[in-house]
Amino acid sequence: MAISTYPNRTGGAAADPVWAATRTGPALLGVGTAVPDTSYTQSRLLELFGVEDERVRSVFLNSAIDRRHLALPSVGADGRLRAESQGELLAKHKKQGVELGVRALQTCLKRIGASVDELGYLVCVSTTGLLTPGFSALLIRELGIPVRCGRLDVVGMGCNAGLNALSAATGWASANPGGLAVMVCVETCSAAYVFDGTMRSSVVNSLFGDGAAAVAVRLGPGSEGPQVLRYASLIIPDAIDAMRYDWDETHGKFSFFLDPRIPYVVGAHAEEVVGDLLRGTGLRRSRITHWLVHSGGKKVIDSIAVNLGLTRHDLRHTTGVLRGYGNLSSGSFLFSYERLLREGATRPGDYGVLMTMGPGSTLETALVRF
After folding, report:
1. Nearest to 200 by CA among 152, 257, 158, 144
2. What is the pLDDT of residue 49?
3. 302 with 185: CB under 8 angstroms?
4. Of the residues 54, 104, 262, 319, which has the fewest C-beta atoms closer than 10 A?
5. What global pTM score does this model have?
6. How far apart are alpha carbons 229 and 231 in whole angstroms?
7. Residue 160's closest CA among 365, 342, 16?
């Protein structure tokens, strides 16, 4: 278990019951999201994929997903999607990733009244393709971000990586008070699709959507927004092969694999990692007003809810994102955060927990105060 916190400016031990009230940390200033213009219902995707197997159809139609935004290939004369080579998939990952990343970053900065000239640190996250140089360099060139901007690319960590990268961004902000850091999650999940009619590929094809999300971070006066107080991480090495993105020799492509037991593995460890996140803060789980959990899939969300005793209302934003977008990988929790801000239900002093899950198997959490 790994736990990180930010310095307590008022002093005192971490076990002090007033810890949560006195702790300070970098603030989340604004968020921006972007998705492809094209979207599809699950029924339409079954037609395009040419799926007739009733077991596979059931996976799509009982996913709690209504629609996903995807960059799919053209349709052939048979009415089905044209097969894409690995080279085409990587090209799509790069082209759409830059387009969506630019839109998300621009929206984020616009919402806080900032310009790209103010950026001091840029963290980019992606799991759905390989690039060198990565998205951080491509976005700097595309947007004219200062060439001396510090940068980091987090690649291949999976759906949990948004919080890993946010930890890097808030760490930089803590070391550079007043400086502006931005994290951008860029995921073209349709660049990881394999169409072969098997249950393995169908589970993936039924779940993931394309999208990008950006969040700005700063420490210092005038930085209004929820403060990130601490993080806690948990990796389950025994389940290291349960979620993986690796080479499929049969198709000559990279493909994603999800073990059917993943929801239960993740759920069984959720209470442990949240307990470590709150330990020593003086906060009980009942004090958490807002839960922003990765929209990993219906069974994953249900398992988290059962193990943490959360209600449908607690996870309304998580289920809403899943329903309207599917699993957006690393940026999913920021789509939920955007919905929470739009709802206007937060109050000063509220506490929230951010939670992401992914390969490793891994659970990442963060504690924030509004």
Report:
1. 257
2. 87
3. no
4. 54
5. 0.91
6. 7
7. 365
DSSP character for 174? Answer: H
End-to-end CA distance of the chain: 26
pLDDT of the residue at 7: 40
Packed helices 135-143 and 86-111: angle between N→C axes, nearest 10 degrees: 60
d(C-alpha 128, C-alpha 327), whole Å: 13
Q: How far apart are CA 260 and CA 266, in angstroms?
A: 11
- Largest Cα–Cα separation, the chain: 70
Amino acid at 59: V
**172, 150 in Cβ contact below 8 A?**
yes
Query: Taking the CA of residue 244 as centre, how many other CA atoms within 13 Å lie in the half-sphere pointing to its CB?
Result: 9
Question: Is 159 assigned a catalytic role?
Answer: yes
Neighbours of 107 (CB within 10 A): 18
Q: Are 26 and 227 in contact, with CB atoms under 8 Å apart?
A: yes
Is the C-alpha dihedral spanning 320, 323, 324, 327 positive or negative? positive
C-alpha–C-alpha distance, residues 279 and 268, integer Å: 18
DSSP structure string for 298-367: HHHHHHHHHHHT--TTTTHHHHHHHHHH-B-GGGHHHHHHHHHHHHT---TT-EEEEEEEETTTEEEEEE
For 254, phi then psi, to 5°, come to -75, 145
Q: What are phi and psi of 93, to 5 degrees?
A: -55, -45
How do 119-126 and 150-155 pair as beta strands?
parallel
Please give the structure tokens belonging to residue 87. Answer: 């080279």
CA gap 174, 71 in Å, rounded = 37
Closest CA to 330 of 195, 188, 235, 229: 188
Output the CA angle 291-219-22, nearest 5 degrees.
Answer: 65
**Residue at 177: amino acid letter:** P
Q: Which amino acid is at 60?
A: F
Q: 108, 124, 159, 185: which is the annotated catalytic residue?
A: 159
- CB neighbour list of residue 66: distance below 8 Å, 6 or more residues apart: 41, 42, 323, 324
Query: Would you state the structure tokens that stand for residue 13, as one six-digit string?
Result: 């031990």
User: pLDDT below 70 — which residues of the chain?
Assistant: 1-22
In a 13 Å sphere around the CA of 144, the CA atoms on its Cβ side amount to 3
